[in-house]
């Protein structure tokens, strides 16, 4: 009984988000700073790899934008170099990562956010982050096989979370 309550809490509170470090960030040597921002937030990295994205996976990933004027340019851009794919985990982390990433248009992104500090153009906004808990689960599953995702303890968690947040 207690175990099922604990599992329910884990499912309720812990979230996964997909981060894509886009080609502009690769070219501008910003991979490290982006990882640093996410690490410093207290998130746990549970998967990471480099990949070249093809048309098929981009059309799935950006399906809501297929009919937009910018889609063709977006696809070309996302194919222009490899990207870094990462899965991060944290308590209710999806929305707070979106805040950390900043608004889609970097000129409107808050100072202190990744886009707000490091980017200007909407089509060169450095990073993708999942936009809901459900999208986070779906996107992580679309880009990572189960064996590429890691479950491990972080010793610092007692300094990042209260017990009810991490169990
Ligand atoms: P998001 O990345 O903040 O979730 P979305 O609206 O989902 O933003 O758009 C996906 C991506 O498409 C953006 O991150 C950006 O790279 C690109 N994009 C969105 N709107 C524009 C635009 O008006 N011009 C050029 N590229 C755009
Ligand atoms: Mg989006």
Largest sheet: 4 strands, antiparallel
- Level of helix content? 40-55%
Mean pLDDT: 94
Q: What is the H/E order? A: HEHHEHHEHHEHHH
**Into how many domains do the coordinates divide?**
1
Widest sheet: strand order?
A: 2-3-1-4
Strand content: 15-25%
What spatial form do the alpha-carbon principal axes imply?
Answer: globular
Q: Give me the Rg, rounded.
A: 16 Å
Q: Provide the CATH topology.
A: Alpha-Beta Plaits
Tally the helices: what do you get? 10
How far is the N terminus from the C terminus? 15 Å
Ligands present: inosine-5'-diphosphate, magnesium ion
List the keywords.
167 residues, alpha+beta, Alpha-Beta Plaits, 4-stranded antiparallel β-sheet, 46% helix, globular, binds inosine-5'-diphosphate, binds magnesium ion
Annotate the secondary structure layout.
Layout (H helix, E strand, L loop, with lengths): L1 H12 E8 L1 H5 L3 H11 L2 E8 L3 H7 L9 H8 L4 E9 L1 H9 L12 H5 L8 E3 L3 H11 L13 H4 L2 H4 L1
Antiparallel strand pairs: 1-3, 1-4, 2-3
Inosine-5'-diphosphate binds next to loops.
How would you describe what is shown here?
With 167 residues, the protein is of the alpha+beta class. It has one domain (2-165): 2-Layer Sandwich (Alpha-Beta Plaits), CATH 3.30.70. The chain is built from ten helices and four strands. The chain has helices at 2-13, 23-27, 31-41, 55-61, 71-78, 93-101, 114-118, 133-143, 157-160, 163-166; strands at 14-21, 44-51, 83-91, 127-129. The chain has a four-stranded antiparallel β-sheet. Residues 3-11 have low confidence and may be disordered. Bound molecules: inosine-5'-diphosphate and magnesium ion. Inosine-5'-diphosphate is lined by residues 65, 70, 74, 104, 122-123, 125, 128, 131.
């Amino acid at each position: 009984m207690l175990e099922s309550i604990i599992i329910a809490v884990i499912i309720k509170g812990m979230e996964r988000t997909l981060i894509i470090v886009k080609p502009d960030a690769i070219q501008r040597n910003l991979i490290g700073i982006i990882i640093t921002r996410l690490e410093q937030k207290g998130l746990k990295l549970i998967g990471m790899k480099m990949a070249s994205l093809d048309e098929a996976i981009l059309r799935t990933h950006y399906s809501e934008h297929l009919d937009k004027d910018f889609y063709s340019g977006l696809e070309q851009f996302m194919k222009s170099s490899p990207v870094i794919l990462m899965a991060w985990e944290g308590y209710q982390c999806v929305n707070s990562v979106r805040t950390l990433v900043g608004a889609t248009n970097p000129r409107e992104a808050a100072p202190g956010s990744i886009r707000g500090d490091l980017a200007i153009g909407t089509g060169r906004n450095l990073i993708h982050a999942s936009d809901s808990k459900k999208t986070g689960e779906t996107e992580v599953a679309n880009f990572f096989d189960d064996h590429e995702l890691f479950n491990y303890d972080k010793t610092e968690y007692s300094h990042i979370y209260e017990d009810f947040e991490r169990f």
